[in-house]
């Protein structure tokens, strides 16, 4: 038995090392093809001092508590933005109908200073139909690897984008409304999620806290649910397991968003590509292609993933479309007002488990709401791992789009107050 364990351990180690070496080859190839020869040796290997805590597995994300050097940030920038996150992404191309922004640029020295030392990749501030601040990470930091066509991985900001899609699905008649019961989807039958109202999913209060706690250990008992389709997760963890719904409280987790996205796809059916085009081309008017996620399983089993990849200005276009819908009281605008009205208090361990940029008092329809210091302001907030943040003041026409590679409560903690809250509160 000991011999078997030794052989298995060695095999796993060897395969992991081969995987890491393969990643390094692609990374070095990317450096070469994009003219970054100063980071390569004559043999084709890189000369960067990359420090990854778990080299064998190549660590999917930068560890929250780590303080990586610049060389390590370069490697993760490639992993996040250029390697396509395991290639589990489909590309949706734009039409020649993009929205063009007006610019009236001003200089903000504090933002420039923050970008020299933090993990911020891009910062955009939009106010009253104009882009007032447009900043990249300095070239000597990470800017030499970035341009306006670079696609940034949404992380959990994709949850809010999913909600915006749901609003369109309701308005197009595919779903009856936020209070409709999810009782016609065979995939979730015989689980605690069956026959709950859609608003419970949107507000992350489905009573699943006994089975998943992302703030505790990432995924709790569900394991790597993001790499599976819904059918597989149901079979492994919920169906015929006597799972029971607990109290309706806020329980932030990505699995619920996967359920929302795949239920929406189930309801839309064969029209999904046409529907996607209507939202992103006709409404948002994207300029560059959008990449959206899926797992490596069958679509009928719920293989959609809510994360997307988009350019910095396309994230701004998404935010502006949300703001325009709200202000113009369109059908989707009425949906946004409804999820704001039906928002729930977080009260999750006093929000201490959430990253500071997401510590709001309420959560509504996959958006963070009621930011501290922004009393009586209707702000729809998106937040994602690494410090990704979009704040939309839907009544005062102010938007902040901050794309970030890394955030923590130490060296890489940027100023939430001055970069996110103050621009929304005070304007420029």
Describe what this molecule looks like in 3D:
It is a single chain. The chain has 428 residues and is α+β, with helices and mostly antiparallel strands. The chain has 2 domains: 2-83, no CATH class; 92-97 and 113-426, DD-peptidase/beta-lactamase superfamily (Beta-lactamase, 3-Layer(aba) Sandwich). It contains 12 helices and 14 strands. It has helices spanning 2-33, 70-82, 109-117, 157-171, 198-202, 214-217, 230-237, 254-268, 272-283, 312-328, 331-341, 416-426; strands at 89-92, 120-127, 130-136, 151-153, 181-182, 196-197, 290-294, 304-311, 344-345, 362-364, 367-369, 379-384, 388-393, 398-404. A 5-stranded antiparallel β-sheet has the order 3-2-14-13-12, sandwiched between helices. Strand 13 and strand 14 form a beta hairpin. Helix 4 packs parallel to helix 8. The protein is globular.
Uncertain residue segments: 2-19
User: Would you state the CATH class of the largest domain?
Assistant: Alpha Beta
Mean pLDDT: 89
**Number of domain units:** 2
Residues in helices, as a percent range? 25-40%
Report the CATH architecture of the largest domain: 3-Layer(aba) Sandwich
Gyration radius over CA: 22 Å
Strand residue content: 15-25%
How many strands in all?
A: 14
């Amino acid at each position: 038995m000991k011999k078997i364990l030794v052989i298995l351990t060695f095999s796993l180690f060897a395969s992991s090392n081969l995987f890491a070496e393969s990643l390094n080859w692609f990374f070095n190839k990317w450096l070469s093809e994009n003219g970054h020869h100063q980071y390569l040796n004559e043999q084709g290997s890189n000369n960067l001092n990359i420090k990854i805590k778990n080299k064998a597995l190549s660590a999917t994300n930068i560890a929250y508590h780590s303080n990586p050097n610049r060389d390590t940030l370069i490697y993760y920038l490639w992993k996040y933005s250029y390697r396509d996150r395991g290639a589990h992404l489909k590309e949706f191309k734009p039409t020649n109908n993009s929205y063009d922004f007006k610019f009236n640029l001003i200089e903000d020295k504090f933002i420039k200073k923050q970008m020299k030392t933090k993990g911020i990749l891009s910062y955009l501030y939009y106010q009253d139909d104009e882009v007032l601040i447009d900043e990249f990470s300095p070239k000597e930091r990470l800017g030499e690897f970035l341009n306006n066509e670079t696609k940034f991985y949404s992380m959990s900001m994709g949850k809010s984008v999913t909600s915006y899609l749901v609003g369109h699905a309701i308005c197009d008649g595919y779903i009856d409304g936020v209070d409709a019961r999810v009782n016609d989807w065979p995939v979730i039958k015989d689980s605690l999620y069956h026959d709950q109202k859609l608003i419970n999913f949107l507000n992350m209060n489905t009573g699943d806290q006994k089975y998943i706690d992302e703030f505790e250990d990432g995924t709790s008992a569900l394991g790597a649910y993001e790499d599976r389709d819904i059918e597989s997760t149901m079979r492994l963890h919920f169906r015929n397991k006597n799972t029971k719904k607990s109290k309706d409280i806020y329980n932030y987790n990505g699995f619920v968003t996967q359920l929302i996205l795949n239920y929406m796809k189930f309801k839309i059916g064969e029209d999904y590509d046409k529907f996607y085009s209507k939202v992103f081309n006709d409404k948002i008017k994207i300029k560059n292609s959008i990449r959206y996620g899926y797992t490596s399983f069958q679509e009928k089993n719920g293989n959609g993933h809510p994360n997307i990849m988009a350019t910095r200005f396309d994230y701004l276009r998404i935010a502006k479309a949300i703001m325009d819908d709200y202000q113009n009281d369109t059908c989707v605008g009425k949906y946004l007002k409804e999820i704001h009205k039906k928002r729930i208090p977080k009260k999750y361990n006093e929000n201490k488990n959430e990253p500071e940029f997401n510590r709001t008092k309420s959560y509504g329809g996959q958006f963070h709401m009621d930011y501290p210091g922004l009393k009586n302001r209707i702000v729809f907030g998106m937040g994602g791992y690494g410090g990704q943040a979009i704040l939309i003041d839907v009544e005062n026409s102010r938007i902040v789009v901050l794309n970030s590679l890394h955030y923590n409560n130490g060296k890489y903690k940027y100023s939430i107050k001055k970069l996110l809250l103050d621009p929304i509160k005070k304007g420029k």
